[in-house]
Amino acid sequence: MKSTENAPHYAQATTSLYPVISAVFVALLVISNVGATKLFTVGPLILDGGAFLFPLVYITGDVLSEVYGFRAARRTILVGFAMAILSAVTFYAIQLSPAAPGWDNQEAYVAILGFVPRIVLASVSGFLVGQLLNSYVLVKIKERTDESVLWFRLIGSTVVGEFADTLAFCTIAFYGILTGKDFLNYIAVGYIYKCLLEVVLLPITYRVIAYIKRNEPTYEFHREIV
Fold first, then answer.
1. Which DSSP category does 164 fall into?
2. Exposure string over 204-223, b if 16+ CB within 10 A, otherwise e
3. pLDDT of res. 221
4. Nearest Cα to 60, choosing from 115, 8, 19?
5. Cβ–Cβ under 8 Å, residues 135 and 77
6. How many CA atoms lie within 13 A of 125 on its CB side?
7. Are 52 and 35 in contact (CB under 8 A)?
8. Quick one: which of 5, 100, 138, 205 is 20 to 30 A from 198 by CA?
C-alpha cells in the first residue's frame, strides 16, 4: 500500500494559476494552427510553421496534467479544440465577406487563412487524439511512479501523444500532396523534432512545474481519482 506522503498529488483546478496556464495553452494552439498552413525546408528537411510553437502546446499540456490531473487537463484540451474550430469558422466567414473597395489582398488572405477543410480536420483530429493520449499516459505513469521520475512521464507521454498527433495530422492534411519519401520524411522529421524539443526543454519544464506546485496551496492535499 502506498503511503499518503509519497502518493501522487494534484492541485485543485479552481486556483489562480490554472486559468492562466489554460489560456496560454489555447493561445499556443490557435497560433500554431495558423502557422501550420506553410511548409518550409531546412536543408533536406520538410517542416510546417507549427513547428515553432506547437511543441510548447504539449509541454503546457504536460504541466496541466502533472499539476492538476487528467480531468482538469481534459477540460482545457476540449476548450482548445472548440477554439480551434471557432477560429477556422471565423476565418472562413471573413473569407466569404465581400472585400471592401480598394482592398486588394483577397487572394493573399485566402492563400494563408482561407478555409481548407482538410487542414482543419487534420489539425483538430490530431490535436484531440494526441493531447488526450499525452495527458492520459502521463497521469497513468504518475499513478505508478508517484512523485518520482518526472522526466520519464514527461518524455513517455510525449512520445505516445506526439506520435498519434503527427501521424493523424500529416496523413489527413498532406497524404497525396506529399508522396513516397517526402511524406515519410515529413512525418519522421516532425515527430522527432517535437520529441527532441521536449527533451531539450526538460530543464525549463521542470522549473515551471516546480514553481507551480510551490505556488498552488492545494497541491499537497488534493488527490484526483482518474
1. H
2. ebeebbeebbeebeebeebe
3. 44
4. 19
5. yes
6. 14
7. yes
8. 5
C-alpha cell at 154: 514527461
Q: Residue 48 in 3-state DSSP? A: strand
Q: Which CATH class is domain 17-215?
A: mainly alpha
Does an H or E element contain 45, and which? strand 45-48
Residue 2 in this model has a pLDDT that exceeds 60? no
Q: Where are the domains of the chain?
A: 17-215
Least-confidence region, from 3-7, 70-74, 210-214: 3-7
Strand partners, 96: none
| DSSP secondary structure of 56-101 | HHHHHHHHHHHHH-HHHHHHHHHHHHHHHHHHHHHHHHHHHSPPPT
pLDDT at 35: 84
Residue 223 has pLDDT above 50, yes or no: no
